Amino acid sequence: MSEGVTSAEAAQGEFTRTGHTAVDRALTELEQVAASPVAEHARLYQEAHARLTEVLDAPVNAVPASSTPGPRD
Length: 73
Known about the structure:
single chain, mainly alpha, 3 helices, flat
């Protein structure tokens, strides 16, 4: 599984974009955690978790994909 986020990438707060709008928005918000006060970290992680859970729980045809070609195209 060499496609995962390395510890160096995680430490830098940089994530590989997925091309899925809602997922990428959650990842962008997570990039801001390092610059946020520690007291805000739990809330930021909970919000990202909730957003990602919504994406995973949505019916496949209900989730809007970006125009970026992916494995299904």
